[in-house]
Amino acid sequence: MKITRRMMVGGTVGAAAAAYGGLVAWQNRNIPSTNKGMALVADPDEILDLPEGFSYRVVARTGSTMSDGLLRPGRPDGMACFAFSGRDNAVILTSNHEIPTWDGISAFGKDDALRSKFTGKYYDTRPDTGMPYHGGVTITHYNLDTGEVERDFLALAGTKINCAGGATPWGSWLSCEETTDVGNAPHGFVFEVPALIDGPVEPVPLKAMGRFRHEACAVDPASGIVYMTEDGGEDCFYRFIPNVPGRLAEGGTLQALMIEGKPSVDTSNNDEPTLIEGKEYAAGWITLDDVEAPDADLAQRAIAAGAAMFKRGEGMAYGHKPGGAQGEIFFNCTSGGKAGVGQVFRYTPGASNDEGTLTLFFESPGAGTMEYCDNLAVAPWGDLIVCEDGIGDQYLRGITPDGRIYDLARNAHEDSSEFCGACFSPDGKTMFVNIQEPGITLAITGPWETLRVA
Question: Source organism's superkingdom (predicted)?
Fold first, then answer.
């Protein structure tokens, strides 16, 4: 394993499609919630509580029949929204389905009776039954004007526990397997699904991106580097430097982040404070070998070589600074922090590939502020949007550039399941999100301009 180092400090808070920065503190409106946000209005249909003036539409539900004759799979998780070429009134949603082998939520129906309707190939089948694994990706063509699904189909099949992932600047979805189980083939890889594909994709694992419990991806468009989180308990923060930017299947170099002067540091702060909130730490990268990891030991080997350890890496989003090419990567750690209920980190690349800084951007002091942060998005008005995967009520939380928290939505469904896959339409007017159980995809609209602080 080769260690690269960096020696500079720099960076300010970044953003995504809209500039993340230059905003003043969040101002309380209406009746403050416990998190100093807006009051949420109770939903009479008991699905989603939203601020006054906001509304939602149900895009899709688990078990509905899709355009290809298959059933919409259960446990929708990570998701992205893409522009529909030549159409301003339609978008393309790519959605993961975090399914292991459970019955009742498969695209193929009970006893996999609908398998004959699937025209593509499976990545893997179960050794005990020969039936395909039920995880994968669906694609949905959604009309923003009518609120109707125009087409939906299964795009990736035979994978397992497809949790999060990330959109690429070249128009594809990276779907991540959050398991290193072995069926007839090993699992724990990233799969690429072009958003504009007309049918099922060829299921090709991107093995050079490593075999581990993948969670989320984010691509720096300036360099083509793909950053990745891992959700296994004692994890690393990775990056993949492709041999050819935008062509991940052609291989590249996998590395794990290290913190200068803190070899193999536990960043969670669970037992003792090791990182100070708001402080920038010089970061370097360890080049990894044997990345297909037949023993599923990639993180252990990386940490032993000096890589930093993170506590359950989850959602991630790329943020872009105003007026320049430099961007930043935000990512969540679900079980990090002294209270063990979540941290948000920021990685700022430096002037060269071997330079960067890591900052503990936010650490939740308790479940009442933010509990078990999971998927992550950057809003058009500049705030971070965090999907909770907590124990009690589940919220969509907003985090301002100065680290203040507010409530954006509450899951009012009786199942009280986690929020997943928050993402925005290209025009910034619609936010899509999944409620994992019983499996509902929602489109939220409203006066987003009221959330932008001038």
Answer: Bacteria
